Structure formats: structure tokens, C-alpha cells
Amino acid sequence: MALDASRYAELFRSESQDQLQTINRALLTIESARGDASSAATAAAVAEVFRAVHTVKGMSATMGYQAVAEYAHELESLLDRMRGEGAAVTMPVMDALFAAADALEHGIGEASEAAPRTEAMTNALHRLSGAFRAAGGENAVSDAARTGVTPGAAHRASGALHRVSGAVAAEPLVEADSGPTVVDPFDGPGVIIRIRQSATTTLPGVRAFIVTQKLAAIGEVAAVSPPLEQLQAAEAPQGFAVRLVTGADAAAIEAAVRSAGDVDTVHVDMLGRARKRAAGPADEPIAETTSARVRQVKIDLSRLDTMMNLVGELVIARGRLVQLTAGSPDPALDESVTQMAHLVGELQREITASRMVPVGQVFDRFPRMVRDAARGLGKDVRFEVEGRDIELDRSLLDEMAEPLVHLLRNAIDHGLEGPAERTAEGKPAAGTLFLSATRERSAVVIRVQDDGRGINRARVLERARVSGLVDAGVRDLDDADLLRCLAHPGFSTKDSVTGLSGRGVGVDAVVNKVRSLGGSVELHTALGAGSSFTLRLPLTVAIVRALLARAGGEHYALPLTHVRETLEWGPDSVRQVNGTDVLVLRDEVLPLVDLRDVVQLRGVRAANATREIVVVERGERRTGLVVDELLGQDEIVVKQFDAARGEATAAGLFTGATILADGAPALIMDLASLL
């Protein structure tokens, strides 16, 4: 029975995307080395590209995407020859390799969306490769770099690769064993590995192929049984064996196998390496290591969203139930409610943890984008990334991908100078662009920093005056005012529109998106020294800890991400400066803002009423928010809402709403807007 590719298209795209990221990352490594393909670092990177392309080829063949498989095989052959002959790694060669990778991605997308046009791509590849080998194709490489991801670019790129490295068939990475269904451990040297896939494995043929590729990365796959072709055609989970010639230990071998996913059991026979003689049953028993069962399953993010919404409702119900049963004389009821509250809390933590993913899943998309943008502008950029392992809620991380693209592209276009300008200013010809993620209390801090020319405050001030964003009497802009001007829709200091910027869309999109997620943006810049954008984000936007406050008869939730401390209002701490209340806190003078005034709450407040102050901070900026009463801390479930039109809501004071334990609604304040 033929494989129904439509059932597994999404899994194929997901697995292929991982391999494409590996290809792009390795190509960037090759380009940064700028040596020849035989150097140690370059050879390792070329081998990594080769393995990834080979994996894509195997998965495509299993899915029945023959055109993509043939294209990947052709590219694999070129890489193999390049690896063997140590061709010079020039910029034209790199442009061709990147264009070929783009074409592979294009073909994967077309094939998995049931668009049959990829077959023409492979046919043209073969024809053009021969033409380039005959004519030299000197001008085609630059064409390939210019034309991007179109199939035509792929054909020209592959032709250029043929010219550089020659076209020969790659040696097969895995030798298919045509013998019995169980590998004979005495048939040759090596470690014998027996693998059984999980009963819930989807696309088992692809998974089996990936196992062999993972093993090939740590040794030589000498045989596979049943034959690899038979495994790839399988539609049900399989048990199979591999003979691997390697110096790796059992733990490393097992880790390599399990990294392929959907593996139930692994048996590693390390004695198989030493046995080359014909041995009978009387020989010593084969030693095996059996690992504990580890089962994994992929789940659609929408289901996790639904589970998070449901557990959010449970949290609200828990709070209501705890409040209703408080002071109950029935100890059994009290014990049951306490146990239920504990279980709901555990369920909430587990679901929240299941949504947390390393920021590297998004960060890894950017090196290739930065490289292409810099090349397009004729700039040399060294891109550094730190904190890939910091975890953030998956839905929030996906929302942050586009704002980060805006910041990185703006840094390349606006911030970093060209090589000649940097050299004239005594800087290294290559600019540095830095992307990092760190953990601070209950927030994740993402920073985009460059060592470029910095932001010209005078130029921004001039444009801001023309646009009416500042008064004519303003003589200077601090960092906060500068950010406010840059974040105004349509604001740009560019005189012309480029492919990267100039339309006034960028900083405003970043600020609006981050604030909608309950975070904040800070800007620090120095002329001639560069700029830094700092984004502070909550770990998750579904359930957050907040301080509950009252102003008049209304309740408000203040996310703890921006709360530093709380104080009582008193004559010893509050002063008046030019008719304005300020807070004197440990020799620091902080302006005070009354929550009643912020939300335009009308009503008479008792003169002797006790009031409290919440110290709010964002980076180095702090202010004191005066409230009528603090009601305590709680975990709140964030609900999106459509605010009514009005001055307060128009200012972006609220990021959502929540339901309190007593069933009353409360608005969630965007504390960053007060700073």
C-alpha cells in the first residue's frame, strides 16, 4: 500500500525545516572560515551540510517527493566532490551554495503543498549543470546570488557548484544489507545496535532513516537490517539493527539514536566490535545495555493553547472555591479544597512548562537573514548570539519573531556603517551585531545591540519638530523621548526608501507588539558608539503573578514584572517639588502618579484615608504609583478584551482583563506606560 503523504506533510515540513536550519548554520560557518574545503573547520561544516542534505533526500524519497529527492542527491554529489577535492571557498561559491539551499527550501515547500512544479526544477538543474560545465558559467554565480529563492536561482547556483567542484555521484552513506532480517554480529567489525520504534511513531520510514544519519555522524554505518530501502518504505513502526564502526561508547551511541525521536528501546552490543572470528553459540554471551523507555509525542500548539485556556478557567474556579470555603467548620471539606487547589497548581505548572521552548528556535533563523541583508548593503557584519537556551512561552516567542527582524534589519541599515566609513573612524571594518537573551526575575530580557554610528539625536529632534511630536522649545531628547519619537507611526530619519527600511515601520511595530504582550522596550544610544534595544517580556502571557490594587471602587491588576517594592504613604517619605508630589526613597527622588488620576476616576477621597505606594521600574527608570489599597498578590488569568474608546484606554494603559476570586473583573495595567 502506498504511503499517504498528505497525512505526514506537516511532520515532513517540520523535520525538513530543522535540516534547513542546520544547512544555513553550517554554510555561515564555512563562509566565516573563508579558507578551503580541506581545512578542519570548513571540512566539518561541509560534512554537516552533506549529512543534512542527505537526510532531506531520504525523507523526500520516503514521502514520494521524487523531484526534491533528486535535487538533494545532485546537491549532495556536488558537496561530496567539494569535500573530497578541497575547493577554494570564495564568495561566488558561497553565494551559489546559499542560493542552492534556498532552492531546496523552495522545493520542499512546493512538494509538501502538493505542487508538482519541483520536477521541472530538477530537470532544468541537470540541463543547466551540463551547460555550465561546458561553458564555465562565470557570470552565473552572481546571478544566483541576486535571484534569491526562485527555482532559476537554484539551477544557476547548482551549475556554478558543478563548475567549482565537478559532478560525481556521492558514495552511499549507508550500505544496505541484503542478508537475513537480523544482522549477524559476527559478520564484521563494529558495534551492533538493535532499535525498536515507539508504537505511536508517525512516518516510521523517515524516523528510521534519521536514526542511520545520527549514527553516521559518530561513526561508519556498515550495515542495516532490514535493508534501508525496505525500512524507508515501512508504514508501521519497525524493529531493525545497525552495525556501526565507531569509537564512541554505549551512552553516546544510545543518545545519538534517541535524538532521532520516536524510539522505544535501544540495545547496544559493544562486544560486537571485537568479534571478527566465526563464533558459535558456546561463546560468551553478548553484553547488552537496555535503556529505560522514553516516549515522546508531537502535539499541535493549538491544543496546548486550549489546555492553557482550560487550566486558566480552573485557576479562576480554584480561587473562587477557596474563597467560598474559607473558614468552613468542616475539616474534610477544607482538606479536599486544599488538595484540589494543589492539584490545579501542579497541572498549571506542567502545562506552562510544556509550552516553554528555548529562544534559539527563533534566534537560529536570524544568522542567515543578517548575512543576506548585510551582503545586499555591501556591509561586513559579525553576528553574535547568546542565551539560546533561555526558555519562553512558545506562543509569545512566535509573536516576537517579527519585532526582532525589524530591530536587526534596522541595525544593519541605520546603525552599522560600511567598511570604508568604519575604517576611517578607526573602527574594525566589520561591524558587530549582538543578540542575547537573559533571565531576570520573572521576565526574559532580549537585547539587540550594535557598535555602529548610534542615533543622531539632533536629526531625530529636527524631524520630530516638523512632525509636531515635540514642542519648538525642546532642545534635547533623552533616551526615553528618543524612543517615543522613533516609535511614532510613520516616523523615519531616512530620506529614501530601501529594501530594508525608510517607510517608518519598525520601531513602532516593535514597541506596540512588546507592550501588547505585557512587556516593555528601552533604548540606549551614543553617537559614534552604537545603540541597544532592550525588550523585557513576561515568561508567559496566559497566567501571570500580579499585585492587586484598589482605586475608588475599582480593582486593578499590576503585573509583578515591573513592580519593585511597596510602601505606605506617609509625610516622612513624600515631598512636594514645584507643586508635584515626589517620593524620597533611599536618597532617590521618584515622581508620584496617582492611580485615580491615571484612570480618570472621579469621586471624593477621605482626607485621612490610608494610601499605599507601588514603586514601578523599567530598567533604570522608576516612579511611584499611589493606590487607595493593596489587596495582595495572586495568579491571574490574562483575558484579551476590546477596550472602549476614551482617553485612558487610548493611551494604552491596559493590556487585558482578568476575573478575580470573588468573580469581579479587573483590568490589567501596562505599568511600562507610566514610565
What name goes with the CATH superfamily of the largest domain?
Histidine kinase-like ATPase, C-terminal domain
**Large-scale geometry:** flat
**Total number of helical segments?**
21
CATH class of the largest domain: Alpha Beta
Rg over CA atoms, rounded to whole Å, is 31 Å
Q: Any guess at the CATH architecture of the largest domain?
A: 2-Layer Sandwich
The counted number of beta strands is 23
Query: Which runs of at least 5 residues are low in confidence (pLDDT < 50)?
Result: 127-186, 273-294, 645-651
Helix content: 40-55%
Distance between the termini: 65 Å
- What oligomeric state best describes the polypeptide chains here? single chain
Within the largest sheet, what's the order of strands? 15-19-20-18-17-16
The percentage of residues in β strands lies in 15-25%
* CATH topology label of the largest domain: Heat Shock Protein 90
Mean pLDDT: 75
Q: What structural class do you assign from the helix and strand content? A: alpha+beta
Instruction: Give the tally of structural domains.
Output: 5
Reported for the largest beta sheet, the result is:
6 strands, mixed
Characteristics of this structure?
675 residues; alpha+beta; Four Helix Bundle (Hemerythrin (Met), subunit A); Alpha-Beta Plaits; Helix Hairpins; 5 domains; 6-stranded mixed beta sheet; 5-stranded antiparallel beta sheet; 21 helices; 43% helix
What does the model show?
The protein has 675 residues and is an alpha+beta fold. The protein folds into 5 domains: 5-165, Four Helix Bundle (Hemerythrin (Met), subunit A) (Up-down Bundle), CATH 1.20.120.160; 191-290, Alpha-Beta Plaits; 301-355, Helix Hairpins; 359-538, Heat Shock Protein 90, CATH 3.30.565; 543-674, CheA-289, Domain 4 (OB fold (Dihydrolipoamide Acetyltransferase, E2P)), CATH 2.40.50. The protein has 21 helices and 23 strands. The strands form 5 sheets. The chain has a 6-stranded mixed beta sheet. Strand 9 (431-440) and strand 10 form a beta hairpin. Helix 1 (5-33) runs antiparallel to helix 2, helix 1 packs antiparallel against helix 4 (91-112) and helix 2 packs antiparallel against helix 8 (204-216). Mean pLDDT is 75; it is low at 127-186, 273-294 and 645-651.
